[in-house]
Amino acid sequence: MQRQEFLSRWIEIIKRSSATLVYKQNFVNAVLRAVRNCSTRHTYGTAWARAVVEELEGHKISPERGEIALDLRSTARKMAGYYWDQTVYFSLRQGPNPLRQPRILRGIKDLLKEYRKRSPQCAPVPFREAVFSPGLKEMLDQVVDTALEIVTGEILPRFQLKGQGKENFINYQKGADVLYLPQAAASAIVENSPLILEAVYYRWAQILEMYNTSPRINRKVRIIDTADLRDRPLSHYEKYLDIENPGRLCFYCGQPVDGESPTMDHVLPWSYLCSDDVWNLVYAHPGCRPGEYGRVLPQFFMARLEKRNSALLEKLAAYAESDMVAGALQDAVSRGIVRKYWTLCQD
After folding, report:
1. 194 within domain boundaries
2. Can you say whether residue 291 is alpha, beta or left, with left for phi > 0 and alpha for psi between -120 and 50 degrees?
3. pLDDT 10s digits, 316-346
4. What is the pLDDT of residues 156-167, one digit of tens each?
5. Residue 285 and residue 263 in contact, taking contact as beta carbons nearer than 8 Å
6. Is 255 found in the same domain as 216?
7. 230 found inside a domain
8. What ranges make up the beta strands (E) of 274-322?
9. Helix (H) or strand (E) holding 272
10. Does some domain include residue 266?
């Protein structure tokens, strides 16, 4: 009798476990389906999906909890942060009309405009490090309010329509600032976060490629996750630049750039290319680059850069097949890539 009771209980546990696994699989499929069906008029859906995963990763999800409360305002603030980073570093468009970008982005641009008035020459600051004055905090709160309105009024209904199918995966009361997820659904998101984020990044990049001509969109979408967003060591390229410029003269003023590790500059803005390439790197004093940070320089400097690249290639041509950097330089010169990218980043 005891054995039969034990087997019955064991079978019941297996059934419940199987049902939970099926439920989780169906829920993840629903999330992925909703991501694939995100509107191409903007990127709100992908931004919110990213925010939900990040928000749930900060929750302690245990089997004993029935439902997990998801703070929608917190997800809205995370969305504002993503748009801040993608704008301050890369100036990415998030919608089809360049003259009227999506509402959240317009708010972020207004906020950035006021933020930059304090120090127009400073390097970009990621959202997590930005310090806002009381007036700027008020502007940020307005952006978050807009994002929350969009989440509750546009994104959630779209998910309920295109993501859920026949099963009711979420518990949301219209107008509320909290969304309730069953423990199994929340757990499924956290357990499958790498898969979901891959789908989010892929879809986000797909949409952005419709509105932006800059290269490496996929990397620009993903790079907002990294701690070392911008400051990569460029010392690897010194030995190449020294071949053509042994005196380490500043590209802009012509005076020597002192120091054991002289500073370098990306002639075409790093924010456009999102890469470090020898054909775009020059020695330069920190304050010599004309204009504001990230500004596209006049054509005169492109002609000077092309001349420098040709001279450097003459000295490296013999190594083009064996050295990756030399090969990339040869390819850039033969394709006229400086002029090509300079033309594109006028857009």
Report:
1. yes
2. left
3. 988 888 999 999 999 999 999 999 999 888 7
4. 887 765 544 555
5. yes
6. no
7. no
8. 281-283
9. helix 270-273
10. yes
**Number of domains composing the chain:** 2
13 vs 221: CA distance, rounded Å = 43
Domain range for residue 166?
Answer: 2-225
Query: Minimal CA–CA distance to 82: which of 51, 122, 39?
Result: 51
The residue from 192, 225, 258 where one domain ends is 225
174, 183 contact by CB (below 8 A):
no
The residue type found at 168 is N
DSSP conformation class of 164: -
Q: How many residues does the chain have?
A: 347
Q: Are 177 and 144 members of one domain? A: yes
Strand positions, DSSP E, the chain: 67-71, 178-182, 264-266, 281-283
What are the pLDDT digits (tens) for 59-117?
777 665 678 889 999 999 999 999 999 998 888 999 999 889 999 999 999 999 999 88
Q: Do the domain assignments include residue 12?
A: yes
Mapped onto helix, strand or coil, the DSSP state of residue 126 is: coil
Contacts of 23 (CB under 8 A, 6+ apart): 167, 184, 185, 188
Report in angstroms the alpha-carbon separations of 277 from 281, 289, 318.
6, 18, 19
Please state, rounded to an integer, the average pLDDT across all residues of the chain: 86
Write down the residue that tokens 């850039």 correspond to: 332
